[in-house]
Structure formats: structure tokens, C-alpha cells
Amino acid sequence: xxxxxxxxxxxxxxxxxxxxxxxxxxxxxxxxxxxxxxxxxxxxxxxxxxxxxxxxxxxxxxxxxxxxxxxxxxxxxxxxxxxxxxxxxxxxxxxxxxxxxxxxxxxxxxxxxxxxxxxxxxxxxxxxxxxxxxxxxxxxxxxxxxxxxxxxxxxxxxxxxxxxxxxxxxxxxxxxxxxxxxxxxxxxxxxxxxxxxxxxxxxxxxxxxxxxxxxxxxxxxxxxxxxxx
Amino acid sequence: xxxxxxxxxxxxxxxxxxxxxxxxxxxxxxxxxxxxxxxxxxxxxxxxxxxxxxxxxxxxxxxxxxxxxxxxxxxxxxxxxxxxxxxxxxxxxxxxxxxxxxxxxxxxxxxxxxxxxxxxxxxxxxxxxxxxxxxx
Lengths: 229, 136
Known about the structure:
In chain A, 39% of the residues lie in helices and 15% in strands.
């Protein structure tokens, strides 16, 4: 499974969703934000090096942290040297070596946001309930379909008491998972941990389990359990 | 039947090649042309060669009874065979060039090159010099 976590807009929580989804699904999280990486990084080769042909994708994957990561460099020079066209092959070789991959997409709709959709086989679209940018979301959905990474699930992030679930489901034609506004999640993100490790019983952790279950196809022979709402 | 009409113009040491491909048949045809000139400067979109170009070849689909234009530039003199038809295949009426599988090049062409412009990247030496001057 290759999941692109996208959203069109910046600041909606794409990286948080990608990181926590990666933790729950035991997937490698690829920080695809070539210009403005914001997932936890460390020393060693990163995605800029991979896309500039200076490192193999698999040797840039960091194991041993709370989530397996392929981090991205943070320098403009690195971003300039990186050729985004290589992302598709990089994601595939990580998938061959490790299994499931979650790609955190950058904001916007330039080629760096489109390439993860080409690399992925399904898309999770993250949106905020109060500033739901429908034109952005629809454009992203159209692009995802064009590139064969159909919209699997919409995440309404930081929801309050009465999320507009039905309206968003109608508008985008995809099932919705809500992630509530959550102090445990904010604390976990601030320390670079998935919320499922720091607060496994929190509502946010449950939401990420529900998201992973919703986008993962049921194994052959297994009975599909109804999604919790 | 496919008819190829090629014109070349040499200006300032660059050869400009302009061609039209005419399809007189009753079905659409996918036509592959090859040039003997080297190197080829194909038209570019967002920094990558335009759709259909692959090194010295270009493939385009011409609907029945229609013609399409194609062109490129090269620093070489137009001595070699400038353009020849190497392959034609009939296509369904509704097929178009976009019916092929999307590639990373398609994505860059359609959405735009995302790399930061060179001017945005600080040069180590220059930045240090500027800082030195400021501190004086």
C-alpha cells in the first residue's frame, strides 16, 4: 500500500496525520515536502540526496525511531538539486524493501505535490472543519483520480463538538474520519512522538486506528468489520 | 497515408525545423518521427521535453483528415535526413496522446517545476562576504 497524505492547503495537519498513520499502519513515512520539511529529521542521507542520485532510497530510511522515516533535507540548495521525478521510483523501492509507505505531501498543487499522488495507490485528504477549502480539495481529488490514486478517506482534523461530517462526505464523495482537537496529540507532536505511543487510549489515537483500518483493504478471507464512527 | 512536409531555417548557427504531418486516411494515426540531427533541442514545458518527445524521436497522434505541426531546434547543420517517418499505427477515433499512462514527466509538465529558482539559493561564499561587509 502506498498512501499519499495530501490536502492542498498548508497548516491543516498533513504531517501530523501522515506520521501517526505511519505509526499505526507500521509503514515507512516519507517526508515529501521538498521545500519545507517538518517531520522529525536526523543526520544521514535524506530525500534530497535520494532525488539528487547521491543515495539509495532504502539507505536513507531511518529505523529505530518511534516510526520508520525517510526524512527530507531542509536546505534550499538541497531542494534545488533534487529532481522530483525520482520520487515515484524511490517510493516503490522503499515499498519493496519495507512494505507499506505513507507519503507526506507538500501544500499547493505544483509538481512536488502531484508527484506523491502518482507514486501512491490511494490518497488521504486532510482538511479542517472550519476553514474547509472546497475548491482546493476538489482540485486535489481530481488530480489524485487522474493519477490513479483515488481518494480513499477524508480526515477532518481538529474537529470540535459537531463536525460537518455529512456535508464533507457529500461534497467529496469519500468517507470521513474525524480527528478531534486533542491535547495529548499536540503534546505528542511537539515531542516528535506518535500519539498512539504517548496516549494510546486517547480519542486521537483511536481516530488514527480507525483511519488505518478504513484505508487498508480487508485481507482475503477476513470479514470486514464495520468502521467505528 | 501520412504525408510529411519539412522546412528548415538556419539562423545564428541554429537550425529551426518546422514540419507538418498530414493524415489523409480514414482513421486516426499515431506517427513516430525520427531526426538524424544531433543534438536535438525539443520544445520544453516547465523544463522537461514536451509530450511525445524521446531523445531523437517524437510521437504524435493525427486525427483522420487532419494535420498537425511539430518542430524543434538543433545547432547541427541540416545535412542529415532532418525528419523521417519511422512508424505509423492506426488508433481508435477517441484515442489521444493523453490516453497513455501518466509519467513523472507528465506531472512536471502539467503542474510546474517545483525546484526553488537559483537566485533563491544562498551561495556560501557570497553570503559570508556580505555579512563581513555589514559588520564593518
